[in-house]
Structures are given as C-alpha cells and as structure tokens.
UniProtKB/TrEMBL annotation:
<dbReference type="GO" id="GO:0019825">
    <property type="term" value="F:oxygen binding"/>
</dbReference>
<dbReference type="GO" id="GO:0005344">
    <property type="term" value="F:oxygen carrier activity"/>
</dbReference>
<dbReference type="InterPro" id="IPR009050">
    <property type="entry name" value="Globin-like_sf"/>
</dbReference>
<dbReference type="GO" id="GO:0020037">
    <property type="term" value="F:heme binding"/>
</dbReference>
<dbReference type="InterPro" id="IPR000971">
    <property type="entry name" value="Globin"/>
</dbReference>
<dbReference type="InterPro" id="IPR044399">
    <property type="entry name" value="Mb-like_M"/>
</dbReference>
<feature type="domain" description="Globin">
    <location>
        <begin position="1"/>
        <end position="95"/>
    </location>
</feature>
<keyword id="KW-0479">Metal-binding</keyword>
<keyword id="KW-0349">Heme</keyword>
<protein>
    <submittedName>
        <fullName>GLOBIN domain-containing protein</fullName>
    </submittedName>
</protein>
<keyword id="KW-0561">Oxygen transport</keyword>
<dbReference type="Pfam" id="PF00042">
    <property type="entry name" value="Globin"/>
</dbReference>
<keyword id="KW-0408">Iron</keyword>
<comment type="similarity">
    <text>Belongs to the globin family.</text>
</comment>
<keyword id="KW-0813">Transport</keyword>
<dbReference type="InterPro" id="IPR012292">
    <property type="entry name" value="Globin/Proto"/>
</dbReference>
Length: 95
C-alpha cells in the first residue's frame, strides 16, 4: 500500500515517510496486518448474522474516527470486502 497509495500514509502517524521496505520490516505493521486479518475474518464469519455484521463494521469504523480517515475510504473498502464475502459465500449482502 505504501508504494501504490502513498497519499494514504498520512493515516499512519509516525510512518508518513516509510518506504514499502520499511513497512515490510516493521513489527508495528506486522501486528497491524494480523489485526486486519482478524477483522476481515470476523466480518466473514458474521456475514450471515446481519445485526452482528453491521455492529462489528460500525464499531470498527467508530474506533478509527480519531485517525480522521475520509469516510469515502471506508465506503470503498467496505464495498470491496462485502463483494468478496458475497462471492465467496455465494450469499447476498444482508441489507
């Protein structure tokens, strides 16, 4: 991401000037990667339970408000995740 979308670096306080190689060698980003994988797994596992799915997604977004992320970024990411889960599970988005 740091190589392909350098404009998003502003959301990573203290790492704004990291290179892609710095990210690869960073314990911070290794831990963050694990947290992201866990979050996506939770979204996939709760996909069929509409209220839990939406609550977890909402809570995740709310936890990141302090980082001043553009809501449009969340929308794009959320749509991509939902589309992937929908295709993988052969289900429809629960609304």
């Amino acid at each position: 991401m740091f190589g392909n979308y350098p404009d998003l670096r502003v959301y990573f306080k203290g790492a704004e000037n990291y290179s892609p190689e710095d990210v690869q060698n960073s314990e911070r980003f290794a831990k963050q990667g694990q947290r992201i994988l866990l979050a996506v797994r939770i979204l996939a596992d709760t996909y069929d339970d509409q209220s839990t799915f939406k609550a977890y997604a909402r809570e995740t977004v709310n936890r990141h408000i302090k980082f001043k992320m553009d809501p449009a970024l969340w929308n794009v990411r959320f749509i991509a995740i939902v589309n992937h889960i929908s295709k993988s599970n052969n289900n429809n988005y629960p609304g």
